[in-house]
Write a structure and sequence with these properties.
alpha+beta, Cytochrome p450, four-stranded mixed β-sheet, three-stranded antiparallel β-sheet, 15 strands, globular, iron, iron ion binding, Cyt_P450_CS
Length: about 425
């Protein structure tokens, strides 16, 4: 989904031109926001937890409110956006030249379509199949750590955090020989559809990447039909319930989704999580001293700096949160990252990384309700294996240069993480 901001003057969201009293409380284009959005989230939770933005959408930032919204019957389909400030968004989405992901992906569909698609995909995405990947993930991690050890220092994003999840999802799918680097490039372009986009050239690039990715994926599916194997792509092709199977377009869309979701957010979990540990040496030392902390540590890292910052919903009926009524047909941005730092839920140390935090698994980084992330178990597995082996291999792991962020508002993560390994 691309937010079409082209009809709005750029200065209306920058905060650099408008008088102070006209600057929106939620201003993700403010200087420094993508490096550290948490002060702005804290201000919203305190002063306007259910915020009607001047551009026509709503922002929900408290944990209890967001949990209720995610578990409600609210829609994810943009056709349900009512007329008003966000009508241009709905029109733009309906007029897309290549609406394959938005039209057929399970994350963009409500029940009963979502229920049907998720049930079919889930047949191929079982806990047993995920756990079976552990040895191969370990091999991939060890190979990348070997190269880092030989060099003595590395940028962990291009050397580990980015290539690992892509390699895992490609092998899990059983992708045939193809230009995997091109697929990764297309995935990186397509994920920008989750960001506010005002530049027509960027929007055209996203649509072009969508079309090319769909063509490549369709070719892979046809190859896999001729060469079935014990892998996820074959399982998706063969998935059936009461005679119901995924259509060709649905297959393409789900596989594209798995490439994008299975890669981009896990990159952020690995990079953001490693950075958080390196910036909190007491917690890093605690994890080294007690490896049994790892499962809870992964959830605390997800809570502390969510790989995906928000999730959209469209209200189907008037909805009251924190005493404020959101009308039916409203486009709502649910602040996952904000809810994960909400003091009212997590206590006064919500902004503190604490790997032994009780209840850390209750974070909303994977969403909640019927759209809870299907790949959560895979992301946890990859992060656990990577951190366990990296910390054991490099007892002197340390930051070694300037950390930079990717400049994204929603799929927010570290772009460069230079380290030395002793």
């Amino acid at each position: 989904m691309t937010w079409d901001l082209s009809s709005n003057k750029e200065h209306e969201m920058t905060g650099g031109v408008l008088p102070q009293e006209q600057i929106p409380l939620f201003n993700p284009f403010a200087e420094g926001f993508t490096d550290n959005p948490y002060p702005q989230y804290a201000m919203l939770r305190e002063t306007a937890p259910v915020y009607p933005h001047p551009m026509g959408f709503w922002v929900v930032t408290r944990y209890a409110d967001l949990l209720a919204l995610l578990r409600s019957g609210a829609s994810v389909e943009l056709r349900n956006v009512d007329s008003g400030g966000m009508e241009n968004l709905r029109q733009k989405d309906e007029n897309r030249k290549t609406p394959l992901i938005d039209g057929y992906s399970m994350i963009d569909r409500d029940a009963p379509d979502h229920t049907r698609l998720r049930r079919l995909v889930q047949k191929a995405f079982t806990p047993k199949s995920i756990q079976a990947l552990a040895p191969r993930i370990g091999e991939l991690v060890d190979g990348m750590l070997d190269r880092i050890a030989d060099a003595g220092r590395a940028d962990l994003v291009p050397e580990l955090a980015s290539p690992l999840p892509f390699a895992v999802i490609a092998e899990m799918l059983g992708a045939p020989p193809t230009d995997h680097e091109r697929i990764r490039e297309l995935s990186g372009t397509m994920v920008r559809s989750l960001e506010p986009v005002a530049d027509p050239a960027v929007m055209q690039a996203i649509e072009a990447a969508d079309a090319e990715m769909a063509e490549i994926t369709a070719e892979m599916i046809e190859w896999k039909r001729r060469n079935p194997a014990d892998d996820l792509m074959t399982a998706l092709i063969e998935a059936e319930e009461d005679g119901d199977k995924l259509s060709d377009d649905e297959l393409v869309a789900q596989i594209e989704l798995l490439y994008i979701a299975g890669h981009e957010t896990t990159v952020n979990l690995l990079a953001n999580g490693t950075l958080a540990l390196l910036r909190h040496p007491d917690q890093l030392a605690a994890l080294r001293a007690d490896p049994a902390l790892m499962p809870n540590a992964i959830d605390e890292l997800l809570r502390y700096d969510s790989p995906l910052q928000s999730s959209r919903r469209i209200t189907l009926e008037p909805t009251v949160l924190s005493g404020v009524e959101i009308p039916a047909g409203a486009f709502v941005i649910g602040g996952l990252a904000s809810a994960n730092r909400d003091e009212a839920h997590w206590g006064p140390d919500a902004d503190t990384l604490r790997l032994d935090r009780e209840g850390a698994r209750g974070h909303l980084a994977f969403g909640s309700g019927s759209h809870h992330c299907l790949g959560a178990a895979l992301a946890r597995l990859e992060a656990s294996i990577t951190l366990e082996r990296m910390l054991a291999r490099f007892p002197e792991l340390a930051l070694d240069g300037e950390v930079t962020w990717n400049g994204r508002i929603n799929v927010r993560g570290v772009a460069s993480l230079p380290v030395s390994v002793g």
